[in-house]
Specification:
The chain is α+β, with helices and mostly antiparallel strands. The protein contains eight helices and 17 strands. Strands 11-12-14-13-15-17-16 form a seven-stranded mixed sheet, with helices on both faces. Helix 2 packs across helix 8 and helix 6 crosses helix 8. It is globular and about 65 Å long. The chain starts with a strand and ends in a 5-residue tail after the last helix. The relative contact order is 0.14.
């Protein structure tokens, strides 16, 4: 049977350069109007009768984070539900993977995809809860709604907790984390969720970058703009996703903010805190310490040894979401980073870091929030 390689679907990204070569030569398409690329997602039909599919992404060296290919294993699926890792090697600037397919059709991706349909299912399910309201902040450049979930009844004494995910659309683990958090937060029998909702109202944007998600981008929106560098000068023309979110934050206030992301190269789960913002002081340091301490207990996938270099005082990049929000609202504001590869402290040879572990990490944020809730203001 002839091989057919296809990426003409939601979040699809790959181009075939040489179908006759062995391995077959592929390239990742850059984000629209941008040099960023690393996300790929495509299917191969007709591989079952081959001894092994041999594929090579020949422009891997030019990806946004080439260091992320070290130790990386491609994810594959036959049913788009169960995603597993396949043997992968990075050599001579090419990402090569061999796979003896058990079925005629197999999907390959950089990480487990989070489709636009699944996003619709998530917000549709969430709004059926008696404590969750769904609204749109406005539209993206391609005309997709920027959906906001408001959970809990607002009142002056309640803390305002904000979460965002997928400013970088290829970081799909971020929306899986939000899904896991929502499953716990909207469970009426969950004691932690009930206690949190007594003292807080939640504002959650599960997908900040719907256009990039559908287009198969790694890092940018439809205009080729990195949303997580727009928080000082967002405009409706370039970055309506950030501009509209900031407007809503201004109307509600923010007492705690978590921006969910994935890191291509670091094989650990970690938080990026705000020691570099001008507003940083003992109060925020105490809140960060309490939050981290509880998260270490809530989920052993989280750790504090590995992460980014800490910003020097006053040297934070205020064009980034967590720094901007922390400075603007003098609040506890962090970035959650999860790996594309695996957590090397607790490796999983079959799945690596996975959608399920991302969901579990999202759910683990709630006890950490509860630990500091009364001290936020």
């Amino acid at each position: 049977m002839t091989l057919h390689i296809n990426s003409q679907f939601d979040s699809g990204n790959i181009e075939v350069i040489n179908h006759q070569s062995n391995p077959i030569e592929l390239v990742i398409r850059p984000d629209h109007q941008s040099d960023f690329y690393q996300w790929f997602h495509f299917s191969v039909a007709g591989g079952k009768d081959k001894t092994k599919l041999k594929l090579s992404i020949i422009n891997a060296a030019g990806a946004a984070f080439p260091a992320g290919w070290q130790h990386y294993q491609v994810v594959a699926s036959y049913d788009r539900e169960d995603w597993f890792r396949v043997t992968t090697h990075y050599e001579n600037g090419c990402l090569k993977f061999d796979h003896a397919s058990d079925h005629d059709l197999v999907w390959y991706s950089y990480f487990t995809p989070y489709s636009w349909e699944r996003h619709q299912d998530l917000i549709g399910w969430a709004q059926t809860s008696g404590i969750c309201a769904l609204s749109s902040l406005g539209n993206s450049l391609d005309g997709r709604p920027i959906s906001l979930l408001t959970i809990g009844k607002d009142s002056p004494h309640k803390r305002k907790i904000w979460l965002t995910a997928r400013q970088h659309p290829g970081e799909t683990m971020a929306e899986f984390a939000i899904e896991g958090l929502l499953q716990k937060l909207l469970d009426p029998s969950d004691a932690c969720a009930r206690k949190l909702l007594e003292g807080a109202v939640f504002y959650i944007i599960p997908n900040m970058n719907p256009d990039g998600s559908v287009r198969g981008h790694l890092r940018t929106n439809a205009a080729g703009v990195n949303l997580n560098r727009e928080w000082q000068d967002a405009t409706m023309e370039r970055s309506p996703e950030v501009f509209l979110t900031q407007q809503k934050m201004h109307s509600t206030g923010v007492d705690l903010f978590i921006d969910c992301h994935g890191d291509e190269a670091i094989p650990y789960v970690f938080l990026v805190d705000n020691q570099g913002i001008p507003a940083y002081g003992p109060r925020l340091a105490k809140l960060e310490a309490g939050f981290k301490q509880q998260l270490l207990i809530s989920n052993p996938d989280y750790q504090i040894e590995y992460g980014y270099e800490i910003d020097l005082p006053g040297q934070a990049n205020l064009s980034m979401a967590s720094s901007s929000v922390g400075q603007t609202y003098d609040c506890l504001s962090v970035t959650l980073e999860m790996p594309f590869i695996d957590n090397f402290n607790l490796p999983d040879a079959t799945h690596g870091w996975s959608a399920q572990r991302s969901q579990d990490m999202g759910a683990a944020l709630l006890p950490a929030m509860l630990a500091v809730l009364t001290e936020l203001r």
